[in-house]
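Dear colleague,

Thank you for sharing your sequence with our group. We've completed the structure prediction you requested, and as agreed, I am returning the results in plain text so they can be pasted directly into your records. Please verify that the sequence below matches your submission; if there's any discrepancy, let me know and we will rerun it promptly.
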Amino acid sequence: MKQTVTKYQFHRAFEEMRPENFSYAGLDALFDYFEELESDIGEEIELDVIGICCDFTEYDSLEQAAEEYDLMPDELPDHTTVIEFDGGVIVQAF
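Please find the predicted structure tokens below.
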């Protein structure tokens, strides 16, 4: 059984389970990313707050994220999913 989740419900799910993991803008970027991914693959994605928190990390900048992985900022998108948004970047762990 699946349920369609609005952006508001997406935010609420994280606020209830993991309120410190992502900024408001970061959650907006993640929601948009997952909606686009669903459209691209033609499948619904299950909302798994804990799984998303384990798989994705928000950073203040691409440079900060790249440093975490000992890469140059322009190399990071070659290795993983990078979601840039106004105020930061979200990187999928690899």
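Summary note from our side: The mean pLDDT is 96.

Kind regards,
the structure core
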